[in-house]
Amino acid sequence: MAQIKLSNLRHSYSPNPSSDADYALKKIDLTWDNGGAYALLGPSGCGKSTLLNIISGLLVPSEGKILFDDQDVTELPPAKRNIAQVFQFPVIYDTMTVYDNLAFPLRNRGRDEDIVKRRVTSIAEMLEVTEMLSTRAANLSPDNKQKISMGRGLVREDVNVVMFDEPLTVIDPHLKWKLRSKLKELHQRVKATMIYVTHDQTEALTFADQVVVMQDGEVVQIGTPVELFERPAHTFVGHFIGSPGMNVLPCEVQGGGAFFGGEQVDLEGPATGVVDGSAEVGIRPEFVSVSQNGDGVEAHVRKVSDIGRHKVVEAIAHGSRVHAILDGEAPNAGDAVKLEFKQSQTRLYKDGWLASTQAEGV
Amino acid sequence: MKTQNQRAWIFVLPVLLLVAFNALIPMMTVVNYSVQETFGDNLFFWQGLDWFEQILRSDRFHAALGRQFFFTFMILIIEVPLGIAIALAMPKQGPWVPICLVTMALPMLIPWNVVGAMWNIFTLPDIGLLGYFLNHTLGISYDMTQDPVAAWVTIIIMDVWHWTSLVVLLAYAGLVSIPNAYYQAAEIDGASNLAIFRFIQLPKMKTVLTIAVLLRFMDSFNIYTEPFVLTGGGPGNSTTLLSIDLVKIALGQFDLGPAAAMSLIYFAITLFASWLFYTLMTMNDNKS
């Protein structure tokens, strides 16, 4: 187990990258602490799998270094890095039994058969596959195959990091939550550093203590699920996490105040270093409510969807779409309402990045 | 409950008729010949199983069968590993892929009798490129019309040249269908190249290799045109394979009865050996 440090990492798949657009990864500086449960979240093509393959050693980065506990492993092949990786599609050795599959990484490293036996038995027990040990791996169901792939990663006692590359893609929906909670449980038991790559926010937020959000080859924000939800550092994070995502409304900044359609919007706190001009106001639908006292932003309700526990209201205010998540009473489609934004959750974004700071004492 | 629909027979009927006219009825004629004796004029005499007994006891048949098995054994033992090796060495992507594939497919596109004629000329000691080179440049005495060993080496090399590509293409198709994640996982698991071959590539190629082995077995066991054009079964009878011997009996000596009995025995052996190969190669698939 180790602390993993990525320093000044850049990667391009073309041999002679000329512009920033040629880079699949644009300058990444990241430290993964020993024993953490991380999720790498981002849309398809944002570079998360590239980053994963660089950590595992399947790819050598164009620039920059990877350090495992301050030891430079940038040029080391995967087998020498002591890492484990679980792929999107379960990789199992068809001709072997489940036992031999789990034993394979240990046997390749020349471990004694009694150590192999001890490790395989304990991992099988953890994964609840003990009764399948003597069956041929080819005959297993996809979720069990994926369990075996995970098991091969966990069977070595000295892995630095276990990486999951969208491991639940081919698993039936009703088995997904089972495997997901199994993973969480495994992390608590083996205490290895785990990095979980996904484009599914639910998977990321349930698995990870720390979520790294990526977009276009860049890390946009690192934080706990709560931080990502409450204070997205970038409008992209606001959009990407949450259902529906954060409302991002165009506004004008004048003398430190934000004006949305000519009306001043109270921000959480002062906007630091923002010159007058156009910017954006960000507010989560959860913190938008229908005003009872006549204050607030004028809006027309366009659609109300009942999604069970609460209702999602889609309204148009000053030409922009605003979502609100309401409990209980909701207006009807076509109603004219006034919307209130909860001040402590209203943020200002300049060029996409968070520009307001929380007022003291709020 | 199963659906009962008798109309299905109507759809099967055309195929049944086709198979009947192109396989069953001609074969029944052969069965008919195999139990009778004829001296021409459409006169037939009942002979029972005498021809079968005669063929099965004949030294000539044993010798031809032995040569046939030896030939097929050599073909399989050379072409299958060689085909796999070439497939492994072929590029998996890039501009060389189509070039390699077309080059590989070329020998298979040449008509069989042309292959025989080509190799015949190629190996002539006086004017053939290979024959002249071996005899006059390297000083190795090589003449397949005189030397049985030279004849055998030539027909085997000719078949390897003609048909290894089939194994290559099938094995290659199996190889390129392996997702990259398998290689990556194996690399992470610390597997050696041999282990990658043994536990990933070979199992993934198994289905296509089964087909390759079956096809190569049947084709080489029934081979006629190429060795006939190349050596005509000689020198002496040294390269008289089963099919060549059969044609000699049927059309050379016009012994229709023994030839028919021999055809049926030949057919039974081919069928049984194919079944045996298939059963052995797929035996482990359903084991749990």
Comma- or semicolon-separated keywords:
heterodimer; A: 362 residues; alpha+beta; Rossmann fold; OB fold (Dihydrolipoamide Acetyltransferase, E2P); six-stranded antiparallel β-sheet; elongated; B: mainly alpha; 2 domains; 2 strands
Would you write up a description of this structure?
The complex is a heterodimer of chains A (362) and B (288). Chain A is of the alpha+beta class. Chain A has 2 domains: 4-234, P-loop containing nucleotide triphosphate hydrolases (Rossmann fold); 243-354, Nucleic acid-binding proteins (OB fold (Dihydrolipoamide Acetyltransferase, E2P)), CATH 2.40.50. Helix content of chain A is 25%, strand content 33%. Chain A has 9 helices and 21 strands. The two termini of chain A are 40 Å apart. Chain B has 288 residues and is mainly α. Chain B folds into 2 domains: 6-48, no CATH class; 60-282, Orthogonal Bundle (MetI-like fold), CATH 1.10.3720. Helix content of chain B is 73%, strand content 2%. Chain B has 12 helices and 2 strands; from the N terminus they run αββααααααααααα. In chain B, strands 1-2 form a two-stranded antiparallel ribbon. Chain B is globular, with a radius of gyration of 24 Å. Chains A and B meet through strand 6, helix 3 and helix 5 of A and helix 8 and helix 9 of B.
